[in-house]
Fold these 2 entries.
Entry 1:
Amino acid sequence: MSKASRKFHVPDELANLYDFANTLDLRHFAHHGVEHAQGDALETPQDLASWMAARGLAHAGAKLTPAMFETALGLRTALRDYLQHDPAGRAQRGVIRALNEGMAAFPLVAELDGKGKARLRPRREDALAGLSTLVAELYDGARNGSLDRLKMCAADECRRVFFDRSKPATRRWCMSSLCGNRIKTRAYRARQRASQ
């Protein structure tokens, strides 16, 4: 769990998904006169290995190849594409197909432990095995409905993934005071110009 996921009260069971989706930062706006710098925390296989190690997802002694790295980025792209849709619109055939294709590289095996509790574990045994945890989080979140609260900010200049903690789960922006205010101000100014 990262500082950001703790700061924004993302539930532990979705924290890795939240963090993974936000490794790509596409924000491009100025706040208090300072332009936000875009960036990608996963530019190299080593970046991905470090990200996984920081979250306890690394497979000891396993080496990440460039092909594995591309597979991981494919999962991130499919996840972000899925989360950019409103929860009601996520069932579109193309959106689901792309996410399923991204997850297919991270198969899970269901098993029972000695106490009769079920769990999903990675079938992979290579350096990407830990990313199967994200697929398990997707599965659990879709099953219990919490995945519907993981959304992408509706502001085009933001596109950050956030966890919607509002009671009706209808938030559209990661921060109403920042992105929401900017969008509302822009819409107000457009209405004023149109009325003149």
Note: DSSP finds seven helices and eight strands in the chain.
Entry 2:
Amino acid sequence: MTDIVALRRANAKRWADAKLTRNFAAMAKSLVCAKPRYQTVEAKTGVPWFVVAVIHERESSQNWFASLAQGDPWNKASVHVPAGRGPFRSWEDAAIDALANCAPRAARNKDWSIGGALTELEQYNGLGYASRGVPSPYLWSGTNQYKSGKYVRDGVYDTKVVDSQPGCAGLLLAMMALDRTISFDGTMPSVVAPSAPNPRPSGTQKPPPPSIRNPARGSIGDFVVSVLSAVFKRKLP
């Protein structure tokens, strides 16, 4: 059985050392542009939108007609594992089902640190690579943490095959270069309320109206005060 705690540490270490070896900029831009749709799923499941996004790319090349669970059409019952899911009314409904009701049930995960997020993604694909002690291409393809090795079908591992799909970690690195709100501190980025507008600079503010009791020297008010003072032989307080 795979030690999940140890795998989280290993994935966090790989992340710290990871560098892209392929250009994922175009894919990352497309995923970031779809942020509002992924946030709809995040709101229902608690799974960070950017985690939803990279699963979508990895499972179906961001095909909006394919389920997040395994890439089958979401408007029909799925035939690949997990089989028998659906049909659903929308891509979002299928995605929520995949995250809430299908292994590894990512909606139940509470650890969204980088080690926790990457390990949740690895479990989404399966722990066959972790059991071999090798980096999963599902995560690390397209980075310096992966060279070769792939399960070409269930139970069949070929050390020479190189995964041509983008790895989730590589996609996240590319997305972070475009969207600085993506965070792996273990919590979701908070929505920052717009700050109150700055007050008008003092140099552009209108001067306050002159006080009636203290009129400006030389003004009509000053003349009236002087006349009244002469009449009553006293100054106004």
Note: The first strand starts at residue 112 and ends at 113.
